Amino acid sequence: MTKQLYPVTRDLHLYAGLFLSPFLVVFALSVFFLVHSWVPGSGAAVLSRNVDDVTIPADFEQLKGREQLAAARAVLDEVGVGGEIWNLRYIPRDRRMSITVNFPGRETIVDLSVATRTAVITRREPGLWDAMIYLHKLPGPHLVAIRGNSPFMQAWRWLADATVYLLIFITGSGLYLWAILRAERRVGLMLLAAGALSFGGLVYAVVG
Predict the structure, then answer these.
(1) Where are the domains of the chain?
(2) Dihedral sign from CA coordinates of 114, 116, 119, 120
C-alpha cells in the first residue's frame, strides 16, 4: 500500500506546489509592504474627468444593500468604470454619492451628484506592487455583504480558497513524505521542533 501511495502523493505534492507558486509569491512579497506601510509607486499620477447627464436609477438615494450595489453598478457601466466596488458613501446634505472602485493596480473614485446628474471620475494607477497588496487583502473581512461584486474578484475569491486548501494538502503530504524517508527523520524532527517553538513563542508574545 505504501509503495503505491508514495509516488502518487509525491507527484501531487510536486504539481500542487508548482500551481501554487505564483500565488505564494504574490502573498509573500506583498507582506513586506503591508508590514512596513510603504508601496513603491504610491505617488502615481491622478487622472480626472467629468461626465454630464448621468442616468440615475429611481430612488437611488433610498436604496440599501444589494439593491444599492446594483444601482451603483448601472451608473458605473454608463460612465465606463469597471472593477470591484469597494465602498459606497452617501452624503445626504449634498445629495452626493462617493463610489470607490478598485481593480488590481488601479483605484477609481466616482463622485456622483444626484441633484445635477453629474459625475467627477478620479483615477489613480499606483502600479504592480499596489496591485499585489490589493490581492493580498481581498477577499477580506470588511464590508463582506458587498464583496465579490465583480467577476474578477469572484474568480480571485475561489483562487484564494484553493490556495488555502492546497497549502493544507501540501503540508499534510509533506509530513507524510518526510515520515516515509527514514534518513530524514532526525533533521525533520529538529525543524518541526524549531518551528513549533517559534510559533509558540509568537503566540505567547501576542496573547501574553
Answers:
(1) 2-37+158-207, 46-125
(2) negative
Q: Which three cell numbers stand for residue 75?
A: 451608473
Distances (CA, A) of 36 to 40, 125, 189: 11, 20, 33
Longest dimension (CA), the chain: 76
CA distance 10 to 191: 20
The pTM is what?
0.71
Q: Can you say whether residue 127 is alpha, beta or left, with left for phi > 0 and alpha for psi between -120 and 50 degrees?
A: left
- What 3 state SS string does 30-76 have? HHHHHHHCCCCCCCCCEEEEEECCCCCCCCCCCCCHHHHHHHHHHHH
Please state the φ and ψ torsions of residue 40, each to the nearest 5 degrees: -60, 135
pLDDT digits (tens, 9 = 90+) for 102-129: 888 888 999 999 989 999 999 988 877 7
Would you say 89 and 112 are in contact if contact means Cβ atoms under 8 Å apart?
A: no
